[in-house]
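FW: tagging you since you asked about this chain on Friday. Here's the raw sequence from the shared folder, copied in full. Didn't touch anything.
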Amino acid sequence: MKPVYLSIKQEATGKRMKELFRKNGYSVKDVQEAMGFESPQAVYKWLSGRSLPSLDNFLILSRILHTSIEDILVVDGDFAFYKAAYGRMVRHVFFEFSAKPCKISKSAPIV
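HL: got it, structure written out here
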């Protein structure tokens, strides 16, 4: 099998997150509260591309934003081959985790 080389483009992923926040009508403060963070610093770091969410936080974001983790990430590399060869399996895995929409509740963080 041919090796697959991928890398996550942090800045572009941050821009995509920002677009998805706007599309879904969420502010940084809304996401901060939904994630249960004391301050918005982590969310701002994601949006600026200085860091990426942990896998757990990506999972929560995918539910909040009604999309898959794969659709949040911007990937550089041989992605076309990866999707063609493994797309069905990967989409299935992410679908299992992110299929249920999740609404932000200001009264309690998503756990």
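FW: The first helix runs from residue 10 to 24.
HL: agreed, and The first strand starts at residue 6 and ends at 8.
FW: great, closing this out.
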